[in-house]
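Hey forum,

I'm writing up a methods section and want to include a predicted complex as supplementary material. The small molecule is S-adenosylmethionine. I've pasted the protein sequence and the SMILES. Can someone with a working setup run it? I'll credit the forum in the acknowledgements.
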Amino acid sequence: MDEVPWSQTDKTVIPPHALAHLPKYGSEKWEIAYKEPFGRCIVAKEDIGEGERLYADHPLVHGPKQISALLCLGCYSQLYQEAYHPCSKCRWPLCSTECELKGLHHLECSAFVSANYKLNLADFGEENPLYESILPLRCLMLRNTCPEKWKTLRAMEAHDEPRRGSELWNVEQKNVCEFLVKKLKMSVSDDLIHSVTGVLDVNCHEIQAGAPDICNVRGLFPLSAMMSHDCYSNTHHTFTDDMTMIMVTSRPIKKGEQVTATYTHLLSGTTERRKHLRYGKFFDCVCRRCSDPTELGTFFSALRCTQCGGPVLCKDPLHPNNTYRCTECGNEVPVGVVSRLTNSVYYELQDADTGDPAALEAIFNKYEKLFHRNHFHLIGLEHSLSQLYGRSPGYLISELSNKQMDRKIECCRHVLAVIDVIDPGISRLRGLTKYELHAPLLMKANKEFQLQHLTRREFVRQLQDVLQLLRDTSYCLQFEPASTHEGQLCQIARQSAGELEQWICTVKQLPENNFLSESRYQINHDEESDSDCCIEDLSLEALLKKVESY
Ligand SMILES: C[S@@+](CC[C@H](N)C(=O)[O-])C[C@H]1O[C@@H](n2cnc3c(N)ncnc32)[C@H](O)[C@@H]1O
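Reply by user p_vandermeer:
Happy to help. Structure tokens for the complex are below, copy them as they are.
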């Protein structure tokens, strides 16, 4: 029988073996503590500033995600049908002979060889369920190959009892237990396999490291596995090329406060986040954002009242079975209607060509009158649109009409207005969105300047706004490794900021006849504000007023 997992005997003490391999598993800044209802968690021992490095965490084990397209089990590069190298020993698809010895492939390779299991390469379709067994198998192999790592793994939370008999448990019974026991003839109990898949489901992090085509990889990070969840978290992590996780603070943390991460998708609503956390992580989130019907004033899960246009909110988001109500006219909307409406957007998105801005705009237009302006579906659509305008075929930045350019700007600003609240400080999403916003603003400013529509003062002001966006981009992406898309954008943003600074200096010295006079500009501007009701102020207050004026 396997040893009793430490986590089931005494959760209040940190077992020395659980973190012993880490060079430092506490620091002058933070420590691991135990707090109900969170369990083990990381707590700040002193005030910690924004952007401070907390620790580097090395993966105990890593492997493909449960659902994965063809990838190399040595280096995790994406593979293509008929263009891969079958391992000379076990026949798993790899990039080359070199990859037979790379990473952790030796673990499953020896198991497949000793079971004399003949892998049918014809089985490899778009997504192969066999990948689901690889990481559990690698974990189980640690029992003999690396007992210290195995002990650390077994000390992690598995939620054995609540998982037993769940939908997830049944899927894993079929895809993992049956395969490992019946096909690979491993002498291991179903319970132990489920405990391992439990540890993986509860504690794994997706790894985004190395070459850009490396995807669908997950790993167990012993220190980060101690961190609690918060929908308004205070950390940000990146990976080095060797898959080391670097944890930094995304905003200041007070002494005694927990150091937290987000286990779920930030751009989803309270009901959806809480469902995801209950289903996959077995707890009910009661964080500040989940407890607040307005989600920190963003109205991210609110509908738009069909009677008066006011925000329709769930009265008690921690008990979402009650009716939604308009905060202005009291109009009630049954919870069933809210979920049907929310789900129908998911269904439409499943069927839509999500790479086509026109298809997303059609969905946006259909639901805009039903959801609050900041509803997560609308913000999600605008997030996608902010990236598609300027990048997708037929919509490259040089091809955008003025209207499309303005729409890109509007989408970026709406997304930023929300993420500035729910994900402030160092955030990948903020960095990327600020980068998306800088390009159309810069193009517009330069164009207006060329047409002599701007005074020097106004042109410099617009360029300085763009400069600030570039500086914010590089600030938000400063920890991203240079090999990643985000790391490259950070470099580009830094370089562009330098060039823009020079351009601003030049503009300040250009002869006056390049610019519109201040008096002429004032007249034009006054005429525009009489005719144009477009608001530039995109604070939540202004967004609300805009919605209410429809
Ligand atoms: C990755 S582990 C975190 C470490 C865990 N507390 C432990 O002692 O091993 C995730 C588990 O921690 C608990 N947890 C994390 N964040 C929580 C929260 N905000 N509220 C309640 N439980 C939480 C849940 O049991 C969750 O499944």
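Some notes you might quote in the supplement: Residues 202 and 281 are 5 Å apart (CA to CA). Residues 61-217 form one domain.
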